[in-house]
């Protein structure tokens, strides 16, 4: 194994543990992947993050092939399909953060209640329709909901954040949960006013200069 591959495997484990420390994930319900050579490195299914080791991270080719003694995340399909269809993206983070999941259970998208939504690439964070976890159908819904975007909710399930690097995808995952929490809080008081699309576009351009560039 090259030093680069080992670094990526360790970075995935560190990010998994960070998800739990940050409270954006519970137990082993989240999963992470990073593009590697002509495939991807993806977390194993149902392995607690505290005990996960670098050799348990699964290398998968873009056709889904992997070593027979390795068990990739049950959500490997959307990890593979997102990385395959989005050359602009190198990392995928999936978790069930509480506020994102509350909105997703209600089938709601996140509208432009705060300018930071621009960090997710547009003026909303869409909610992909429900499909059973691990299915090709869920993967298709997720890829569509992410078109032109860097995050989406999954109906009755959770959230996906993607990025050019794992650090950026992780940062966005935390930011999306913050937006979901803010929107949820607003809905306790009333119906929040929304920022217009042209303002979100202006923010998107400003963010590129600020260091919060997309990806
Ligand atoms: P793993 O299969 O990656 O453990 O996760 C389950 C899950 O998150 C289903 O959405």
Task: Write down the Rg.
Answer: 17 Å
Roughly how many Å apart are the termini? 27 Å
Main sheet properties: 7 strands, mixed
State the helical fraction. 40-55%
Strand element count: 7
Q: What can be said about this structure in brief?
A:
The protein has 215 residues and is an alpha+beta fold. The protein is 40% helix and 14% strand.
Topology:
Elements: H1 3-22, E1 31-36, E2 39-42, E3 58-61, H2 76-85, E4 91-95, H3 98-105, E5 127-128, H4 136-145, E6 151-154, E7 158-163, H5 166-189, H6 197-210
Parallel strand pairs: 5-6
Antiparallel strand pairs: 1-2, 1-4, 2-3, 4-7, 6-7
Helix pairs in contact: 1-5, 2-4, 3-5
Residues 28-31, 43, 45-46, 73-75, 133 line the site of 1,3-dihydroxyacetonephosphate.
Architecture overview:
This protein is of the alpha+beta class and 215 residues long. The chain has one domain (3-208): L-fuculose-1-phosphate Aldolase, CATH 3.40.225.10. It is 40% helix and 14% strand. The chain contains six helices and seven strands; from the N terminus they run αβββαβαβαββαα. The chain has helices at residues 3-22, 76-85, 98-105, 136-145, 166-189, 197-210, and strands at 31-36, 39-42, 58-61, 91-95, 127-128, 151-154, 158-163. It has a seven-stranded mixed sheet, with helices on both faces. The longest helix is centred in the last third of the chain and has 24 residues, at 166-189. The radius of gyration is 17 Å and the shape is globular.
């Amino acid at each position: 194994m090259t030093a680069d591959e080992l670094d990526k495997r360790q970075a995935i484990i560190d990010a998994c543990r960070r998800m739990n420390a940050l409270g954006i994930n519970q137990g082993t319900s989240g999963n992470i992947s990073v593009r590697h050579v002509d495939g991807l490195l993806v977390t194993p299914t149902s392995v607690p993050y505290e005990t996960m080791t670098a050799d348990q991270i699964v290398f998968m080719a873009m056709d889904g092939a992997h070593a027979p003694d390795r068990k990739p995340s049950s959500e490997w399909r959307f990890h593979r399909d997102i990385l395959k269809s989005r050359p602009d993206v190198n990392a995928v983070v999936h978790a069930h953060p509480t506020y994102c999941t509350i909105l997703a259970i209600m089938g709601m998208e996140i509208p432009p209640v705060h300018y930071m939504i621009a960090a997710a690439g547009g003026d909303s964070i869409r909610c992909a329709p429900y499909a059973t976890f691990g299915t090709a159908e869920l993967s298709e819904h997720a890829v569509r909901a992410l078109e032109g975007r860097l995050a989406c909710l999954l109906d009755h399930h959770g959230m996906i954040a993607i990025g050019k690097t794992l650090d950026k995808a992780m940062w966005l995952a935390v930011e999306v949960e913050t937006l979901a929490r803010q929107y949820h809080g607003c809905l306790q008081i009333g119906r929040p006013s929304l920022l217009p699309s042209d303002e979100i576009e202006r923010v998107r351009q400003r963010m590129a200069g600020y260091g919060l560039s997309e990806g």
